[in-house]
Write a structure and sequence with these properties.
Blueprint lengths: L2 H14 L4 E4 L13 H4 L1 E8 L8 E9 L5 E8 L5 E10 L7 E5 L7 E8 L4 E10 L3 E10 L6 H13 L8 E2 L10
Antiparallel strand pairs: 1-9, 2-3, 2-9, 2-10, 3-4, 4-5, 5-6, 6-7, 7-8, 8-9
C-alpha cells in the first residue's frame, strides 16, 4: 500500500471511529447458514437493527435482491433521508465459493474490491442475519452486522434469538442500533 493510501485510511479511520465498529486483530470467522439457498433469499429485506455504518444515515433502510441470469445478484439498497429524499445505490453480489453459497462478495463501485456479505442465519420468510468484516494491515478489523426482516417489524423473541447468534459469532451486541422503520410509506 502506498503512503498516501495509508494516510487516507488512517484519516478515514479517525473521522469515522464513532460510527463504526473497530476491533484489534483479524476478523472472526463465524459459521454461516448451512445449505444456503440463494433463490429463496431473493426479494426485499428491511433493516431492523445494525452495527453503526458511516454509509447509512437515513431511516427506512431496505435492500432488494434479484437473481440475474448469470448467477450474480443485483443489490438495490435504499434509505429515506431526513430531508425526505430517497438515497439509493445499486451493486452486484457474487457467491465467492460454490461450496459456501452463504458467503458472498458485494461490489457497488467498479475497481473497488468486493465487500464481504456473510449470511449467518435466515429462515428466508421472516428474518436474516448478515455479517461483514474486513481486516486492515493485520492490525485491526471493522465489522458490520444487519438484522433483516421481510416486514418492517420483527418480534422480540426473534430479535433476542438473533442477538444470541450475533454474540456467539463474536459481535458486540451492545453496539447494535435499532433502525427506524416508521413513516416509510414513500418507500413503496
Amino acid at each position: 500500500m502506498k503512503a498516501y493510501q495509508v494516510v487516507f485510511v488512517l484519516l478515514l479511520t479517525a473521522v469515522t471511529v464513532d460510527s463504526q465498529s473497530f476491533h484489534s486483530g483479524k476478523c472472526p470467522q463465524p459459521p454461516v447458514q448451512e445449505d444456503f439457498n440463494i433463490t429463496k433469499y431473493m426479494g426485499t429485506w428491511y433493516e431492523i437493527e445494525k452495527l453503526p455504518a458511516v454509509f447509512e444515515g437515513g431511516k427506512c433502510n431496505q435492500a432488494t435482491y434479484t437473481l440475474l441470469p448469470d448467477g450474480t445478484v443485483k443489490v438495490y439498497n435504499a434509505e429515506l433521508l431526513f430531508d425526505g429524499k430517497i438515497n439509493s445505490i445499486e451493486g452486484v453480489a457474487r457467491v465467492k465459493n460454490s461450496s459456501q453459497p452463504a458467503i458472498l462478495g458485494v461490489s457497488f463501485f467498479k475497481g473497488v474490491p468486493d465487500g464481504p456479505y456473510w449470511v449467518l442465519a435466515t429462515d428466508y420468510e421472516s428474518y436474516a442475519l448478515v455479517y461483514s468484516c474486513s481486516t486492515y494491515f493485520n492490525l485491526f478489523h471493522v465489522d458490520f452486522a444487519w438484522m433483516l426482516a421481510r416486514t418492517r417489524v420483527l418480534t422480540n423473541a426473534v430479535i433476542t434469538q438473533l442477538h444470541v447468534e450475533l454474540a456467539e459469532a463474536g459481535v458486540n451486541i451492545k453496539r447494535l442500533k435499532a433502525s427506524n422503520q416508521t413513516g416509510c410509506d414513500v418507500m413503496t
